[in-house]
Write a structure and sequence with these properties.
This protein has 434 residues and is an alpha/beta fold. The protein is 46% helix and 15% strand. Helix 5 runs antiparallel to helix 6. This is Glycosyltransferase involved in cell wall bisynthesis.
Length: 434
């Protein structure tokens, strides 16, 4: 087998949309292309986007669903895209979302006869319940994604907790834990960069500073953070709390902080896209407060660790996997009094917090290069297992799509609508897909 594998990466989100999974796909593609093979990224089309990457990006037609779900939805069974990818000699398909991307992956598998790896990143049942009110539709959507996942040749999860969540949805297959990495280098930001954010946001020397980075959504357990800070203040703690991020609940969270009398203590920066500036926040803080029980991986905890910052986490949460209490951070029960105790502990002994942060940086840090290296080391075995077993999956056969496309093309030609335009772009225009 050629050492240089052609890996097709699929996901719903990709720049211009950036979220945790899109960032994962970007790092997979970059590291595969740089270190081990050829990356091909297949993602939904966005109007006006130019893809300038050291690897190939193939865009397939999409419809605008940004108002309802935050990103465009691709059309998975698109013959022109499948034909284009068939020319790429794909060895393995790696999908990062169990919805349209995996539908596309299954059609592509039937066309190129390559195995599918799926990485399960987040608790999709919670996302579905937040997006859909009717219970029977929620159940149908969950059944659909489980069916899609079970059709893959190997399933990876980003943590044991993610695997347990997947099992709770009715998934009966096996899985392999394959952690995500971080793109921040190990070590703290330059002193002048830290000084700059301190001046901008009024962060005083000697005052314990706590940090949260992420989506400003209540389901991230931010209410617990605010209530814990309120109790810590009542008990005499002096501190600053910096919230970095944006989200649908941003304004409500600010109102809640003010109502609790935390106006002077809390700083809300909004979203910070500058990675150097974000690294400066991690480097300045004394402890990262992340009591979320929603996240399956808590990659932001590893980003904090990269900068020598330990975290306060809920005991038993996915984010707390691999964290030893008192060594890499502080593990608490899921209540405000416990969080207040942790805040007071750090406020009274900042030196001990710095020691935990240094240990976290040395012991739990995982770079994207190493994370993707573990993944690419596994790819050949997945390919070998697939070729030896040749499982039957009952995928939508690509040949049927091509026959349908040819019939449509012939019909359009006879109607003198198609004329001499390029096969795919002409059809796009007729269907008004932008």
């Amino acid at each position: 087998m050629d050492d240089k594998l052609n890996i097709c990466l699929l996901n719903e989100s990709f720049p211009p949309v950036i979220d945790g999974v899109a960032n994962c796909v970007l790092n997979y593609a970059e590291n595969i292309q740089k270190n081990s093979g050829n990356a091909i990224v297949a993602v939904p089309h966005y109007p006006g986007v130019t893809d300038d990457y050291p690897y190939r990006v193939v865009r397939y037609p999409s419809i605008n669903t940004t108002k309802s779900i935050g990103y465009r939805t691709g059309i998975p069974y698109w013959p022109a895209t499948l034909r284009e990818l068939m020319k790429s000699d794909i060895d393995l398909i790696h999908t990062h979302c169990p919805f349209v991307s995996t539908m596309f992956a299954r059609a592509l598998r039937s066309a190129v006869n390559a195995p599918i790896v799926l990485t399960y990143h987040t608790k999709y049942d919670i996302d579905i319940k937040n997006a859909v009110e009717l219970g029977f539709i929620q159940a149908a959507a969950i059944k659909f994604i489980v069916s899609n996942i079970e059709a893959c040749d190997e399933v990876w999860v980003v943590s044991e907790g993610a695997g347990e969540n997947l099992k709770s949805l009715g998934y009966t297959g096996g899985y392999r834990v394959m952690e995500n990495g971080v793109d921040l280098p190990r070590g703290q930001a330059a002193p002048e960069e830290i000084a700059e954010i301190c001046a901008e946001y009024g962060l005083e020397d000697g005052v314990p500073t706590f940090l949260y980075v992420g989506r400003m959504m209540w389901y991230k357990n931010i209410r617990l953070t605010l209530d814990g800070l309120f109790r810590a203040k009542l008990r005499g703690a002096r501190f600053r709390m910096v919230f970095v991020g944006s989200g649908a609940d941003f304004e409500e969270i600010k109102i809640c902080a003010n109502a609790l009398g935390l106006t002077k203590e809390c700083v809300f920066t909004g979203i910070v896209k500058d990675r150097k500036k974000l690294r400066a926040f991690f480097s300045r803080a004394d402890m990262f407060l992340f009591p979320s029980t929603f996240d399956t991986n808590g990659i932001v905890v590893r980003e904090a660790a990269a900068c020598g910052l330990a975290s306060v986490l809920v005991r038993g949460s996915c984010a707390a996997e691999g964290i030893t209490d008192g060594r890499h951070g502080i593990l608490i029960d899921e209540n405000a009094d416990a969080l207040a105790d942790a805040v007071l502990r750090v406020a009274h002994d900042q030196a001990a917090a710095r020691v935990m942060g240094k240990t976290a940086m040395e012991e739990i840090y995982l770079s994207w290069e190493d994370a993707v290296g573990r993944a690419t080391a596994r790819y050949p075995q997945v390919i070998k297992d697939y070729k030896s077993s040749q499982p039957e999956h009952g995928d939508f056969q690509a040949g049927k799509l091509f026959k349908l496309a040819d019939d449509i093309e012939l019909g359009l030609t006879k109607l003198k609508v198609y004329r001499n335009k390029h096969r795919s772009s002409g059809v796009h225009k007729r269907l008004r897909i932008k």
